[in-house]
Amino acid sequence: MIRSTLATLALASAITTAHAYDNQSLASDAAWVGEQADRISAQATGLADDLWNWAEMGYQETRSSAALQDHLKEAGFSIEAGIADIPTAFVARYRQGLGGPVIGLLAEMDALPGVAQQAAPQLSPIQGQAAGHACGHHLFGAGSTAAAIMLSRWLKESGTPGEIRLYGTPAEEGGSGKVYMVRAGAFDGTDVVLQWHPDDQNSALPRSSLANKSAKFRFKGIASHAAAAPERGRSALDGVEAMNFMVNMLREHVPDSTRIHYVITDGGMAPNVVPANAEVFYYVRDVSAAALEPIWERVEQVARAAAQGTGTSVEWEVIHGNHSLLPNQTLNRLLDASMRQFGGIEYSAAEQKFAQTLTGLAHRPEHQLGDEKKIVAYDPSEAASPGSTDVGDVSWNVPTGGFGTATWVPGTSAHTWQAVAAGGMGIGHKGMLLAAETLTLAGIQLLREPQLVEQATSEFQQKRGDDFDYAPLLGDRKPPLDYRK
Fold first, then answer.
1. Residue 435 φ/ψ, nearest 5 degrees
2. What number of other Cβ atoms are within 10 A of residue 43's Cβ?
3. Long-range contact list for 265-269, CB < 8 A, 24+ apart?
4. Is the separation of the CB atoms in 17 and 455 below 8 Å?
């Protein structure tokens, strides 16, 4: 059984990452990483800008995925493309010698619909563009690719045995690309996974996340003339609205940790036609898969009741489902120590002016301009963030550590035009390069000291528990390759 919260916190606070080599060697490795980052920076930022300009949505990242693969091929990686029945998913491998740790890195690449924005400090939509990188996945993908290439160079130069795996992971935004990859066995044989995410602060706090499940509920009724023959119609929109009304009453009777969101994606085309078809798209979140499942069952019951009460029928398609993140203190402490070797971010005069313009539009006033220069103090409490990610499913199958860097102006919220703007210029580039350096130095330490991998694995096994049996929340459905079309 999974340990209690108090037991988990006690375990986490006791974990330390002892190094077999001294600080001078660590500083030497950091200096090597810094030199390599300088050499690769133009290539990495060019790749990030390409992905930013293309802004391809989930499962449609054809050019973005190909560009990441091309850079890795040129660096000597072998590529396995189209894994897990996803055309844009891939794993790139670089091996040196026999044995040694297998280090996995994640590379997201999908954009968000409806947030097309120029790299300007005022609202400037790009006309005719359907999406924008409001969560910084262009930086995520390019930064992780840069780290993988630097690690491959270190393996070659040092002769140290080990393997680097870069996972190209599509459709994080509501598509659960990584879940299908986990389900297909893509992470089998990987010892640890390191990942990062764009943010407005530099932090390697061992955060958890909310488990999340979504579905499109499709109601079917009978069309008729809304004025001349209303008695003959059965409104599918009534079914949707009845469901929404009852779910909103349900909110009073769920735990405080539960989150439920919906949008009506099809409500009919004309007021004088009783809608024969209507659709509502639901997300449900909670602290864990175990807590989420009974709430989800109640939402399904509400859908059935809404259909019965309105004389319609309903069916639903589960679109995605993510487990919560399982933090790993061993890996997060390692990432924290690695980031501190490089320090925070310094803006140029032009970037400072850009940031000052955006500061008044910030959505998180508790984060202030100047935070980009700092690294948040390490806190082992494993607090849950309010968001969800398909990295959660990876973390329940492979020991996983993660962190964030200030690719956005402090105070900026994800999924905003301000995040898109900063991600398309020097502010985003600098945060991405700090992330690439941090990943690389942490990876070198894991390759140098396999006992750190063993320590991370031991913590992972203790937290997960002996009787844990992983089951994807999205069941056995195939990847929804058209969910953004």
1. -65, -45
2. 16
3. 265/216, 267/237, 267/240, 268/236, 268/237
4. yes
What mean pLDDT is predicted for residues 219-246?
97
Question: d(Cα 294, Cα 298) in Å, to the nearest integer?
Answer: 6
What six digits make up the tokens of 386? 């309010």
Q: Does the pLDDT at position 17 exceed 50?
A: no
Contact 31, 153 (CB under 8 A): no
Distance between CA atoms of residues 193 and 440, nearest Å:
12
Hey, CA dihedral for 133, 135, 139, 142, is it positive or negative? negative
Name which of 324, 441, 396 is nearest 31 in CA terms: 441
Q: What is the pLDDT of residues 171-191, one digit of tens each?
A: 999 899 999 999 999 999 999
pLDDT for 301 beyond 70: yes
How many beta carbons lie within 10 A of that of residue 31, not counting itself?
11
The rounded mean pLDDT for the chain is: 93
Q: Which ranges of 373-425 does DSSP label H, i.e. alpha helix?
A: 391-395, 417-423
Under a CB-based contact definition with an 8 Å cutoff, are residues 142 and 201 in contact?
no
User: Which residue in 401, 416, 389 sits closest to 473, CA to CA?
Assistant: 389
Comparing CA positions, the residue from 198, 143, 191, 139 lying closest to residue 165 is 191
Distances in whole angstroms, Cα of residue 72 to Cα of each of 235, 237, 242, 332, 390: 53, 49, 51, 26, 23
Domain boundaries, the chain: 5-208+324-464, 211-322
The conformational region for residue 38 under phi > 0 = left, psi -120 to 50 = alpha, else beta, is alpha
Considering only the C-alpha atoms of the chain, give the largest distance between any 2 of them, rounded to a whole number of Å: 85
Name the CATH topology of 211-322.
Answer: Alpha-Beta Plaits (3.30.70)
Residue 325 phi, psi dihedral angles, 5° rounding: -75, 135
β-sheet bridge partners, residue 394 = none
Q: pTM of the full predicted structure?
A: 0.91
Residues in the chain: 485
Reported as a single tens digit per residue, the pLDDT across 464-481 is 999 999 999 999 999 999
Q: For tokens 């996983």, name the residue.
A: 400
Distance in angstroms (rounded) separating the CA atoms of residues 313 and 219: 6
Can you tell me the distance from the alpha carbon of 93 to that of 88, in angstroms, rounded to the nearest whole number? Answer: 16
CATH number of this structure's domain 5-208+324-464: 3.40.630.10
Q: Which tokens hold the place of 134?
A: 């409001």
Residue 443's pLDDT is 98
